[in-house]
Amino acid sequence: MWNVIYSLVEVIVVLVPILLSVAFMTIIERKVIASIQRRTGPNVVGVYGVLQPFSDALKLIVKEIIVPHQANKVLLFMAPMVTLTFSLLG
């Protein structure tokens, strides 16, 4: 039992800083691109744009899934998962 808890804590300790760094790198990237283009950066969402990556993630989650009429629905939804699985295993 303690091995499982210890493993979960290890995973959380590794993943949380990575996810936070990706979120803040997104903010920095948007600020740099905005300054290069001489426009206002993503400072509208939250304080100094801190919530911008979370609003982007929410936008991606609630996007409509478009399925072509004659497409094989099982293959359409399983192909990305199979590809990701094989790329992580290989």
TrEMBL record:
KW Iron (keyword) present: no
Name assigned to this protein: NADH-quinone oxidoreductase subunit H
Listed InterPro entries: NADH_UbQ_OxRdtase_su1/FPO (IPR001694), NADH_UbQ_OxRdtase_su1_CS (IPR018086)
GO cellular component, one term: mitochondrial inner membrane
Membrane-related topology note: Multi-pass membrane protein
Lineage: superkingdom: Eukaryota
Intracellular or extracellular location(s): Membrane; Mitochondrion inner membrane
Transmembrane intervals: 6-28
Family indicated by similarity: Belongs to the complex I subunit 1 family.
Keyword NAD carried by entry: yes
Species the sequence originates in: Cronartium quercuum f. sp. fusiforme G11
Example GO BP: aerobic respiration
Gene Ontology terms for molecular function: NADH dehydrogenase activity
Keywords associated with the record: Membrane, NAD, Transmembrane, Transmembrane helix
